[in-house]
Amino acid sequence: MFFLKEETKVITLHPSYFGPNVREYLINRLNEEEEGRCTGDHFVICVMDMVDIGEGRVLPSNGQAEYTIKYRAIIWKPFRGETVDAIVTSVKPTGIFTLAGPLSVFIARKNIPSDIKWEPNTVPPQYTNHADQVFEKGTSLRLKILGVKPDVAAINAIGTIKEDYLGAL
Amino acid sequence: MSRNLLDQDFGSEEEDDDFNPAPAEDSDNDDVDRGEVGHHGRGEGYTENEGGGDDAGGEEEGEEDQEDEDDRGEDDEDGEDEDEDDEDAVSGRSRKRRRRGPGVHNFIEVEAGVDEDEDEGEDEEEELEFGGELHPDDADALPVGAEMDDRRHRQLDRQRELEASMDAEKQAQLLKERYGRNRAAASDAVIVPKRLLLPSVDDPSIWGVRCKAGKEREVVFAIQKRIEERPLGSRNPIKIISAFERGGAMSGYIYVEARRQADVMDALQDMSNVYPRTKMILVPVKEMPDLLRVQKSEELNPGGWVRIKRGKYQGDLAQIEEVETNGLAVTVRLVPRLDYGLNEDSGAPLADPKRKRTGANAAIARPPQRLFSEAEAKKKHSKYLSATSGLGGKLWSYLGENYAEGFLIKDMKVQHLITKNVKPRLEEVTMFARDSENGTSNLDLASLQETLKNSTAEESYLPGDPVEVFKGEQQGLIGRTSSTRGDIVTIVVTEGELAGQTIEAPVKTLRKRFREGDHVKVIGGSRYQDELGMVVQVRDDTVTLLSDMSMQEITVFSKDLRLSAETGVDGKLGMFDVHDLVQLDAATVACIVKVDRESLRVLDQNGSIRTILPTQVTNKITPRRDAVATDRNGAEIRHGDTVREVYGEQRNGLILHIHRSFLFLHNKAQAENAGIVVVRTTNVVTVSAKGGRPTGPDLSKMNPALMKNGAPGGMMGPPPSRNFGRDRLIGKTVMVRKGPFKGLVGIVKDTTDVQARVELHSKNKLVTIPKELLVVKDPVTGQTIDISRGRGGPRVPQGGSAAPPSGWQGGRTPMAAADSSRTPAWGGAISSRTPAWGGLGSRTPAWKADGSRTSNPYDGSRTAYGGAGSRTPAWNAGARTPYGGSGSGSSDFDAFAAGSRTPAWGGANAGGRTPAWSASSSTSNSKVYDAPTPGATYSAPTPGGYGGAPTPGLSAPTPGAWADSAPTPGAYNAPTPGGPPRRPYDAPTPAADFDGGSRPYDAPTPAMGGIAATPGAGPYDGDDGGPRYEEGTPSP
């Protein structure tokens, strides 16, 4: 699910950057560092705007300035039960690996309808029910997230296509 | 009376089911053999009748009896207060008790008969035996044959009840008077609160008396016999109230209930196997109910697991094949331990294998568990082997035992089996797994689960675990555990109508509840222990989870799972973790792909999978995050980068470890080997570097934009370029300029940065000589050759190292940097000089001499120099001129090249200098000084070099320098101009040289001179400068 989240970030600036472009530097930095970041809980999709850049505070001893920036960002936090569209990145005998945006979702064999069989002999290998459902690398599909496992800087999820209206698009 | 329990014929017990009411489902029980003999006070004299007294007729007695019965019923309940919830059982039992009490008599107190075992049999026996001893009064009251008929007993019972109920109050009064008891001995036992039925201090005490272990029952029967002999009312009555034993855990004791200890002593006097004189234990009142607690026997189901108590198969796991209807004998399936007569003494008679087996040694030296093999049996024991084909396949009969499908099929008595806490280990269980046709073993998970459930499972429930009641009245309740006590789990209901309430439920009726997607950890009970994964399927209480590590599906029982908050920490075995790099031997490293309980699976650098023990690991290689390797294209790859194989399967993955030329990659999409792949660095290309995203300037560092102009970094200048690869000096013919080998010619055999090993032509000897002392010669012509033309030659650093005052070098280098055209000049310096040298082979030493001459003590040498020295100044002159030219610009240089220098040379040659030198050859220092200073040297360069703007500035210092370095001999002038911009250096440099001796200075000096020339030669090599220069060189 997408959220608009207000967050703060602290950026330290070398004195050599002090000048008319400070703001620009900070914004660039923020965008570079934040957009696309995964906190282990959510993905930062896009930094919307700065709420407040604040005044820089010069740190004693090294002369660098510390800016605390408040900004708003669009984040995506995958939830259990959420239905998302994804693209197959690889198919294995154990299941299907997909990417839903930045999130990698694994669909275990148990979560694939039983009529969709593993066909290792086709090129490329695929899961198929020999009808409309064919899953190979690059296929778009719709899945439901079953569980989300947060990691340090990544999120892993498992999903299912064993329900109505799920499967290849 | 003592009988072998095992010999009883249980099948014939008519009362079997009567006596065994439907066992209380939820009593946690054990079967304990127990016999109890009741003795009842008879007659008025003995009124302390409790728990099973009976009477000998008469109305009053009847009433008493009634009360007794009630008491007994209460006792019953006392004994099983843990079964309180099970009303069926209780009521059933009390009913039965009532029925039995009077009939069978009075003498025999059969305690709460839940035992399914032998004792019932015994009781039966007793009944039969004592049946004849019916009291005459009772006998009168009963119809004929009543003693054998249960119904009659009941009738009598009812009769008495009726009587009792008529004047209950009166009776109660009476009884109260008589017994002085405070007990609610009302007619209706059911209403009596159970706690009031518990024994109190007013009740008779129970003493535990030592006896011979195993003879408990015998003793009890002996007591019974003695009571018969000496009944109450006789002269010497036995005054104990009851006696019983508790086998099992309490073997070695019998328990006697009596008012006084003396009564016990008296009753047990002179009885064999019992030792009343030893310490008698008075059972505390509180423990009395426990003493009489009845535990239900284990329910055995086919497919369940048991262990063998003793014999050859002691401790072995067995699977129940079949349970006989009486529940006393079972057929079990065992993995046989056979040696097929291989270890047998051929001479010994095969007669008594039984006796052999009984020894403790037999259990130790028993053969390993192996499935029966008829082939092996045939080898030595074919005569004992016979086959019968049954329905389910071939059945082998070998040495009196039956074998099917390799298993031993054996009938065993329940008491020879351990049925509780069997805890089958998976290794054992897998031996029983019959392979199905698809190769996967069809372990009967259900039966295994059944057995495991019987093991103490309460520890697997921790507060907070989500659970579900799946059995019993509260089926379907969902909640979280809040506490566990023994087998009872307290649950806070979280869903449904009862939400928020706290209920208690036995462990057996619970299962943990997981949802798909839960991140769980396997906590025990299976070989997947400590595996982490996400639940993909829940079916009843089996849960399928997807292992984080191997991406494989694992099916385990929900009780073995726990919600896991941790991430990443998968299996660990001691210090080893999955994905660790370990050293197996000096040449082999491997990455752990799986950690089992006792072994590790590793993928070694050659790509082979091995299973090793932790002890086989030499050491664990701590990961080096900063390790760097290069991929096939020479790009740098580091830990964390994503690379792809070029050939083969084109596998890709994240670099986990870099070890020498091997990379251990992790590929999440690969199921086998926990996603680990090993590749060679030369076979991969980088897909993406760690992080992947290009990052902007580091804002916490210096702004690179500011660094561009004149930043201090700029001052640093590029480090002197180094020569890589093979030193070009090697193999060259060189001449030594200085030192003991001066003038000798040889071939360079080997070099280091600063030194060269030279094989001298003359001495056929290898000597090590500083490189800067070598001059490369053409082996044929003997001409000096520049081997480093056009390159940042090795000389540059040499020059630097040779110049003792680093300030010199330092000063110069920036110059060079600032003036790009001059940097190469440095390199070229030699070349330009070299020819000069070449031309003036003889003079080179002179130069040196000149250097040495600078200091006074070398006057003599200077003199020698005189001749040769004439040119040195010239050199200087020449050097300086081009130097200036190159510094100011090419046009100057051109001009210079065109002629100004040549004349200078010429001039020098001609003699302008010579006089100077000759002057210098005169001993006076000052003269020397005079001579060079003049001008020839100075005037010439200054205009040339500083024709431009800097000239004034420079010219100003120059004199200054001059003044300072007044003592500096003329020869030193050369450098001074060389470093004009750094005036301060000028002065010290020579000074230093003076101090330190001229020799080191020497080297740079020419270099200096050379520099000047070099710029000319270097940059303009292409057009005219170089060649011309060379041309010029020889000419002098």
From TrEMBL, chain A:
<dbReference type="InterPro" id="IPR045113">
    <property type="entry name" value="Rpb7-like"/>
</dbReference>
<keyword id="KW-0539">Nucleus</keyword>
<comment type="function">
    <text>DNA-dependent RNA polymerase which catalyzes the transcription of DNA into RNA using the four ribonucleoside triphosphates as substrates.</text>
</comment>
<feature type="domain" description="S1 motif">
    <location>
        <begin position="77"/>
        <end position="155"/>
    </location>
</feature>
<dbReference type="InterPro" id="IPR003029">
    <property type="entry name" value="S1_domain"/>
</dbReference>
<dbReference type="InterPro" id="IPR036898">
    <property type="entry name" value="RNA_pol_Rpb7-like_N_sf"/>
</dbReference>
<keyword id="KW-0804">Transcription</keyword>
<protein>
    <recommendedName>
        <fullName>DNA-directed RNA polymerase subunit</fullName>
    </recommendedName>
</protein>
<comment type="similarity">
    <text>Belongs to the eukaryotic RPB7/RPC8 RNA polymerase subunit family.</text>
</comment>
<keyword id="KW-0240">DNA-directed RNA polymerase</keyword>
<dbReference type="InterPro" id="IPR012340">
    <property type="entry name" value="NA-bd_OB-fold"/>
</dbReference>
<feature type="domain" description="RNA polymerase Rpb7-like N-terminal">
    <location>
        <begin position="9"/>
        <end position="63"/>
    </location>
</feature>
<dbReference type="InterPro" id="IPR005576">
    <property type="entry name" value="Rpb7-like_N"/>
</dbReference>
<dbReference type="Pfam" id="PF03876">
    <property type="entry name" value="SHS2_Rpb7-N"/>
</dbReference>
<dbReference type="Pfam" id="PF00575">
    <property type="entry name" value="S1"/>
</dbReference>
Automatic annotation (TrEMBL), chain B:
<feature type="compositionally biased region" description="Acidic residues">
    <location>
        <begin position="10"/>
        <end position="31"/>
    </location>
</feature>
<dbReference type="Pfam" id="PF23037">
    <property type="entry name" value="KOWx_SPT5"/>
</dbReference>
<dbReference type="InterPro" id="IPR041973">
    <property type="entry name" value="KOW_Spt5_1"/>
</dbReference>
<feature type="domain" description="KOW">
    <location>
        <begin position="636"/>
        <end position="661"/>
    </location>
</feature>
<dbReference type="Pfam" id="PF23291">
    <property type="entry name" value="KOW4_SPT5"/>
</dbReference>
<feature type="domain" description="KOW">
    <location>
        <begin position="513"/>
        <end position="541"/>
    </location>
</feature>
<feature type="compositionally biased region" description="Acidic residues">
    <location>
        <begin position="51"/>
        <end position="89"/>
    </location>
</feature>
<dbReference type="Pfam" id="PF23290">
    <property type="entry name" value="KOW5_SPT5"/>
</dbReference>
<feature type="compositionally biased region" description="Basic and acidic residues">
    <location>
        <begin position="32"/>
        <end position="45"/>
    </location>
</feature>
<feature type="domain" description="Spt5 C-terminal">
    <location>
        <begin position="831"/>
        <end position="977"/>
    </location>
</feature>
<dbReference type="Pfam" id="PF12815">
    <property type="entry name" value="CTD"/>
</dbReference>
<dbReference type="InterPro" id="IPR057936">
    <property type="entry name" value="KOWx_Spt5"/>
</dbReference>
<dbReference type="InterPro" id="IPR006645">
    <property type="entry name" value="NGN-like_dom"/>
</dbReference>
<comment type="function">
    <text>The SPT4-SPT5 complex mediates both activation and inhibition of transcription elongation, and plays a role in pre-mRNA processing. This complex seems to be important for the stability of the RNA polymerase II elongation machinery on the chromatin template but not for the inherent ability of this machinery to translocate down the gene.</text>
</comment>
<dbReference type="Pfam" id="PF23042">
    <property type="entry name" value="KOW1_SPT5"/>
</dbReference>
<feature type="region of interest" description="Disordered">
    <location>
        <begin position="1"/>
        <end position="139"/>
    </location>
</feature>
<dbReference type="InterPro" id="IPR039385">
    <property type="entry name" value="NGN_Euk"/>
</dbReference>
<dbReference type="InterPro" id="IPR041978">
    <property type="entry name" value="KOW_Spt5_5"/>
</dbReference>
<dbReference type="InterPro" id="IPR041977">
    <property type="entry name" value="KOW_Spt5_4"/>
</dbReference>
<dbReference type="InterPro" id="IPR008991">
    <property type="entry name" value="Translation_prot_SH3-like_sf"/>
</dbReference>
<dbReference type="InterPro" id="IPR041975">
    <property type="entry name" value="KOW_Spt5_2"/>
</dbReference>
<dbReference type="GO" id="GO:0003746">
    <property type="term" value="F:translation elongation factor activity"/>
</dbReference>
